[in-house]
Amino acid sequence: MGGVALFIVLATIVASSHAEGIPQQIHHLRLYTGAAGSKIEGLSCLSWRFAVETDNFRDWSVVPEKCEHYVGYYMMGEQYRKDCDAVAFVAMAYAETVALAGDGRDIWVFDIDETTLSNLPYFARPDVAFGTKPFNNTAFNAWVAEGKAPAIPGSLMLYKKLVSLGFKIVFLTGTRETYRQVRISNLKKAGYHTWKKLILKPDNDSSTAVVYKSSRRAELEAAGYRIIGNMGDQWSDLLGTNVGNRTFKVPDPMYYIA
Ligand SMILES: *[C@@H]1O[C@H](CO)[C@@H](O)[C@H](O)[C@H]1NC(C)=O
Ligand SMILES: *[C@@H]1O[C@H](CO)[C@@H](O)[C@H](O)[C@H]1NC(C)=O
Ligand SMILES: *[C@@H]1O[C@H](CO)[C@@H](O)[C@H](O)[C@H]1NC(C)=O
Ligand SMILES: [Mg+2]
């Protein structure tokens, strides 16, 4: 059955190649699998998520409503966890190849939200619906203030490995200074017990994440730190200046930060 269908598609490609010189029918090979097939303006939710992860699709404000179930199943199911584990394994393999100077200045920069701590209990709420509702700063901050975000298992595994290898950890987050104490207790509760620096955003700083994070990384390097690795869920964690020797992107189809 599959073979026959593929043959027909290939035959169509060959025929159309003959006619116009370029295969026009390759989209017939498109897969439809479960909820990933829900459409948003002709785009499957899987294609939408892929475009988001590759930073081809930018400056979006909400997850398309039609993709609520797709994103929800992805985040709550095993695929999200597996994808995070895969990033952690690649990062650990890289970290093991690095010869540390031993002067305490080889650092690994971690973002916090959706990188080391997960806000999934918040995003799974009906009033948030995996990012299909407009971002509510008041409600999100109230959740942050609870200090109950769990660790992302792959990232915690990587963190422990890095600490055992002798890396110094720097958390660099867009969370406001106001929440310093609750973030400290949340990180510790989740299993992140030690770090060199915890950098939060001043309450009066209105710069974008990419500008704010670049400037803090520049300050770290000016102080003699070497950013060996840098991990985040947003491209704004990984683009800009002083990004480090290697960057690692963990998935996040729920929100976009410039
Ligand atoms: C945002 O969240 C707050 C606190 O939960 C709530 O009172 C408010 O109505 C929400 N705003 C919108 C626009 O939903
Ligand atoms: C924010 O506040 C600090 C401390 O009061 C001050 O030094 C800094 O210039 C302020 N930054 C902005 C952008 O207003
Ligand atoms: C990191 O990059 C700098 C600058 O390119 C280079 O000198 C250094 O050897 C690199 N370190 C590692 C561990 O790759
Ligand atoms: Mg983040």
TrEMBL record:
Annotated Pfam families: Acid_phosphat_B
Extent of the signal sequence: 1-19
Single GO MF annotation: nutrient reservoir activity
Keywords, ordered alphabetically: Glycoprotein, Signal, Storage protein
InterPro entries for this protein: Acid_phosphat_B-like, Acid_phosphatase_pln, APS1/VSP, HAD-like_sf, HAD_sf
SUPFAM superfamilies: HAD-like
Job description of the protein: May function as somatic storage protein during early seedling development.
Family per similarity comment: Belongs to the APS1/VSP family.
Name used for this protein in its record: Acid phosphatase
The organism of origin for this protein: Nyssa sinensis
Organism classification: Eukaryota, Viridiplantae, Streptophyta, Embryophyta, Tracheophyta
